[in-house]
Amino acid sequence: MNRISHTSKTILTSVCMIFASLLLGGMVAAKPWSVAFEFSDSLKGWQEVHNPKNADVSLQRVQMPDGQWAADLSIPDDEKVIASLVRTINLPEDKGVVLEISGQYRTLELKGDVQAVIQPLGGSSPGNGNWQVNPLDTTDGQWRSFEMTCALPSDAKKISLRLMLVRGSGSLQLSGLRVTFLEASELDDNQVAELVLDDARPAGHVTPLHLGVNTAFWFPGLYYGTLPTHNPESHREAFIESLQQAGIRAVRFPGGTTSHFYLTEGKDVTDELLLSLDGVGNVSSAWPKGHYPRWEDYRETMREAGMAIIYQLNTSFYVDEKGKLRPICDSKFTKASGLADGEEHYEEAASALARLFDKGVFQPGDVDYWEIGNEEFAKMTVEQYARIVAAYTRVLKQYDPETPICYTGHWEIESLLEEEGVLDMLKGKTFHYPFSQWPGPQQPHNTAEYTSFAHTDMGITRSLDRFMAKVNSGELPAHLKRSISETGVYKYWKYDPFRMTCSFAHALAYANNWPQLMSHPIVDQAIYHELESPFFGQIMYHAEFHPVLREWEWLDPEVKPQVLDTDPEGGAKARQRIRKPEDFTSMPTTRVMAMLSQFEGADALLMKSTSAHALGQAMIGRDKGRFLLFLSSPDDYPVGVRMTWPEGWPQPESGSWRLLDADSVAAALDTEYREREIPAPLPVNGRLEVVLPPYSVSLFEWKVE
Question: DSSP string covering 579-605, please?
């Protein structure tokens, strides 16, 4: 039983063990196989014996003296037949809460030439069929043992246990069915993550700017989603609802490199600029003219949605007092456009910015963070960029003095900005993709390796700590923050982003990395790249999903809403494309964003595990009368968590647990993963214990009076 005991220790929530005896006589033609099953009163009664070859198979049910029930199955040993016992188990209501919280596991030990199948019944989501089954085939003397662990869907109301008995040349041993429920307190250290506060640094304060997305101005959903509501093509209400449900709290516009291609003065001059840059930086003259938001419409929509706005100023082009498109200096994009004139127009560009304030295009309070350009280290010299930053900063501080400003992370730029007298006016230095390591697939050609991807840890904290050390040592100004105005959570060119970004594995990777940004005191903004696009977007508009390829792509503009959806469970239909012509469709990661958005206004601190088992990144937060705990579990088995309640924190009197989980890391559609809210466990004697389901993300919220 040592091996059985060791196996049961690896099962972290509920264990179904088959262990018992079969007493066989000599193997002669007259002797039947006799198999005894033993199970508790709440599970009495096998319902069916399936015998495809119509052999002389019998099943009898008898009650044992000790109150247990047994089923006796007999199969003639001279028949090479397959017979199966089918037992449908109704899950008791009083255990339903346990099932829903823990995401049940079962272990079967089968000895002999036997196959076993467990399948859920009554689960509401199609994704419930994707069970994680881990067979172990071992030999112990004359017995072959098959041990399986299967994740039971948390919303299933029944389990169907099917044992298929295959006649073999040796003896056969099976045993009864037993269902038990284990608590976190019963688990050993190999099954549990013991969490402690990572108090080596002060807590970070979470603001809306830590919960942002990049919004490139030319994406179709942004255009239709920001049109005024009186426009018959407008989908503003649906767009605002999708942003709010996703937990997004800040937006960056015009969005990355596209800030060099957009001019706030209007669509006519922006269309002229785009035409001059045809074929440069993903610019295409084939786009419909003006098929992007006016700044006024964008601002109105985002304010209505409650979004903080990060606005990127164009550092390549400006519009002069006569309305003419002009270059600021000779740089990458001005040369590509054919507009470069060999001269420098820094003060003229600053005057153009001042005119936008004078005309009311920009007003104090419109913008929550000014960003001067995007990645100019790849587009112009540090001297050119420093002059632009200085000219723009003086104007911004004159017209909008309370709004912070960040600049691109050009090397050695601080001394130039200090010479210009503007360094102290700047709050943040931007950094994109702040990773200490770039893990890729185990095999370079396996670009959809979901399982290892779900465990991605980019080492963000180590990178941020190095920046903070430079600030603390005086190498960088003491007031300077790290503005992460654009980042993802993996190395795009190592994986297939079209499949990975829309998967539940990406949601788990986001859950493991984003808390490192939110809780770090040196970070004043954290913006995910991107809101919309099949490549790395989190909300798709006018798109279709390929169930076989497991990826999204934009629909042709001519596709109309009446195109039929497909049956997600379905045979030949599953090979068709699932089309969403008029919908804003969210990826699984937005559900994690929505959880993390609950930390807005809280002081947040990372937690670390001192036990053998490591979770995804854990984060705890405190805000007035509420306490938050964010946990992710990227493994395919349940994990116990133990934590000492922080000293000085009042004991909570109630709590809720928002749980997001899936049966497969490849899940992408909202029918393939689950989200629900259930009561949260409370600390007992200063200790919190809980069991997390596999492939899950959890947000606990407790309140005190």
Answer: EEEEEEEE-THHHHHHHHGGGTTSEEE
Residues in Cβ contact with 42 at an 8 Å cutoff, skipping those fewer than 6 apart: 92
Burial class of residue 564 (count of CB atoms within 10 Å of its CB; 0-12, 13-18, 19+): exposed
Predicted confidence (pLDDT) per residue in 468-477, tens digit: 998 989 888 9
Identify the CA nearest to 373 among candidates 258, 462, 244, 275: 258
Chain-centroid distance of CA 354 in Å reads 41
Q: Which residue has the higher pLDDT, 299 or 565?
A: 299
Q: Which of 89-103, 159-173, 361-375 has the highest mean pLDDT?
A: 361-375
CA angle 374, 377, 383 (to 5 degrees): 110
Q: What is the pLDDT of residue 301?
A: 98
Burial class of residue 635 in the structure, from the number of CB atoms within 10 Å of its CB (0-12 exposed, 13-18 middle, 19+ buried): buried
Tokens of 237: 């209400």
* pLDDT at residue 174 greater than cutoff 60: no
- CA angle (610 as vertex; 614, 7 as ends), nearest 5: 55
pLDDT digits (tens, 9 = 90+) for 13-35: 222 222 222 212 222 222 222 23
Half-sphere exposure of 430 (CA within 13 A, CB side): 24
d(CA 603, CA 201): 12
Contact 397, 354 (CB under 8 A): no
pLDDT of residue 200: 76
Task: DSSP for 606-623, please give it.
Answer: EEEE-SSS--S-EEEEEE
Which among 172, 18, 200 is positioned nearest to 109, based on CA atoms? Answer: 18
The C-alpha atoms of residue 308 and residue 431 are separated, in whole angstroms, by 19
Asked if the model's pLDDT at residue 161 lies above 50, the reply is no
- Take residue 645 and report the two structure tokens written for it: 């309640």
